[in-house]
Amino acid sequence: MNILISNTSEKPIYQQIFEQISAQILKGELQGGYSLPPIRQAAVELQVSIITVKKAWEELERSGLIYTVTGKGCFITELSAEEMIQKRHETVLKQMESDIAYYRSFGLRLEEVIELLRTVYE
Amino acid sequence: MNILISNTSEKPIYQQIFEQISAQILKGELQGGYSLPPIRQAAVELQVSIITVKKAWEELERSGLIYTVTGKGCFITELSAEEMIQKRHETVLKQMESDIAYYRSFGLRLEEVIELLRTVYE
DNA sequence: ACATTGTGCATGCACGATATACACGCGGTG
DNA sequence: CACCGCGTGTATATCGTGCATGCACAATGT
Fold it and tell me: Between chains, do A103 and B92 touch, taking CB under 8 Å as contact?
């Protein structure tokens, strides 16, 4: 459970949890077959309600990254290295499309965007 | 008033209006000194409430892109070409920072991001 | 049975979106 | 010059939706 929750962020808490665990799974930091912490324990660690954790877990299950067994726990879906890369790119591309739409609405061309990226990406 | 509102978008309506007008001003499509449509007229055209338009106008004023005169109307702030470019980059960079944080959370390096960008940016 | 796990329901609160009534500014008219 | 009407932005009260929560219920395994 290496999660950082920002109370100042405009994103809902359950989505912050979802995104960070999602990233950790797709980076291979959380191995398939192992289980996630019980929602109660996670709730205590993260200082949030059980239900907030559950909503994050539900999103993860909807994305096919974990599966739930009532009474037992939640387990990480086993993925091959190729599948992880594939899902990671899918996820990033989906977000990137709307990001690009925003940049383009300001009339920026591809090379301008790349130039700005280089100045910010440390 | 060349605005497109998406009801399926997760973004609030007033923010969609704000972003699009903001972009049009900073691209020079809306010249300084000219006035924006009255909020009532804009509300009819955009099929939204007066107050929703007002909230968008307030955001524009807070960003220094327009100024309001009670009883007269709302007018676009006069900006030099350099100021427009500057503000445009400021705006885009602010958004780009959080975009990059997202990409990096998935472990992507700068060159991978650029490669993905090239495949999507048509 | 009991302890541990996930699930479902009812509540409080913040925010987006709305309609209606109010205040300010300008210009025509007596 | 005063007044009133029209067009402008402004403020108040209300409704619906979604985030976040606590508490009680169901399922699993020892």
Answer: yes
